[in-house]
Amino acid sequence: MTVWDELVGQEPVVETLRGVVADPAGPTHAWLFTGPPGSGRSNAALAFAAALQCAEEGCGDCESCVMAAAGSHPDIQVVRTGGLSIGVDAARDAVRRAALHPSVGRWQVLVVEDADRLTDQAANALLKSLEEPSPHTLWMLCAPAVEDVIVTIRSRCRSVVLRTPSASAIAELLVRRDGVEPQLAAATAAASQGHIGRARGLARDPEARRRRVAILQIPARIGHLGDALAAARQVDEEAASRAAARCDVADERELDALKSSWGVEDRGRRPAGYAGALSSLKKEQTARRKRMARDAVDGVLLDLLSFCRDVVAVQLGAAHAPADLVNADVAEQITGQARLWTTEETLAAIDAIVRCRDGLEANASPLLALERLMARFVPASA
C-alpha cells in the first residue's frame, strides 16, 4: 500500500504528483491544493510530502512513510486551526520552522490546512517566506478554491485542483479500507455527496445515520410557524451539544497543560503573564467551539440541500428510479414531498438554504439564520 492509495478518484492528480516526485530537478517551492470539501486536499498534500521524503517515492512501508502517516515526521509540519481563522502567531511559528534545515528528510515541508482562513496579517507573514524561500523548504497550502487565497500568495504557488470523487470510488474505499458491507458503503457514499470523511462517518456510526434521517424529515414535520421555530432551536441546540462533546475534553486537557507549563497549582499565586496566557487559551477554545457548532449546522444544511435537490429531480422527471437520488433510502418521503411542493417552492427552498449558509459564513447568529430558513418550510396554506 503506497502513500497515494488514500486519494480516491484523483488519478490525474496522483499521476502529476508522482511525476514531480520522480523529477530530478525537484519540486516547485510552493503549492496550492484546491478542491471541494471532502475531496482530500490535505490528504493529497500530505501524501505528496511523504513521497518527497521517501527514498522509494512513497512506498508507504519505510520508516519515513510510516512517520508521515502517523503525523510524527520531524520534517513535515501541519498548520491547522480549531478556530475560525489562522492567526499571525501561528503563521510566524510556521515561517520560523520553514527556515530550519531538514533533520532527517530531504525537505522541510509546511502544510497549511484551510489557507483560506489565514488572516491578512498571517498571510503577509507567510508571503515573505514564499517570496524568498529557503532552498530545502516546501510550502503546501490547501483551500476550497484558488480565489479563496489572496492573489499575492496564489501567484507564487503551483496549483493542484482536485475533483469531487465519485460515489462508486468512495464506496470501493469504504469496503477495501474499512471493511464496510458493500450495500451500506454504496448508500453512505451517495449520501455523502462526494465527502469522503462524511461517508466514512455515516458508514461507521449508526447514530449519525439516524440523525441524518431525522434531518431529512424536517420539511415534512413543519406544519406551522411554531414547528419551524422549534425545528430551528433543536438543530441549534444539537449542534452546540455536539460541539461541546468534542471540545470539553480537549479544553480540559489544554488547561491542564497550560497550568503545568506555568507551574500553576489549584491554590496559590499565579505567575506574572499566566493571566494573559489563560485569556488567550480561553479565546481560542471559544472560537473552536463556535466553529465546530457552525460546521455541525452546515452539515444539516447540506443534508436539507440534497433532499431538496432530490425533490426537484423528481418534479422535473430527472429521477426515474430511487438509484438516481442522492438520498435513495428515503425515496418514498422525497416523492411525497414532490407532490406537496410546486417546483417553484422547491427552488425557493434551495435558495433559502444557500442564503442561510452564506449568512453563517458571514457570522450571522445560527439560531436566527435557522429560524428564517425553517419558516420557509411552512406550508402556504398554514
Task: Summarize this structure as a short list of keywords or feature phrases.
382 residues; alpha/beta; Rossmann fold; 2 domains; 16 helices; 5 strands
The topology string of helices and strands comes to: HEHHEHEHEHEHHHHHHHHHH
Spatial order of strands in the largest sheet = 2-3-4-1-5
Give the biggest sheet. 5 strands, parallel
Basic shape: globular
Overall radius of gyration? 23 Å
Rounded average pLDDT: 92
What oligomerization state is this entry in? single chain
User: What is the straight-line distance between the termini?
Assistant: 58 Å
Measured by DSSP, the beta-strand proportion falls in 5-15%
- Given as residue ranges, the uncertain stretches (5+ residues, pLDDT < 50) are none
Number of strands: 5
Q: Please work out how many helical segments DSSP would assign.
A: 16
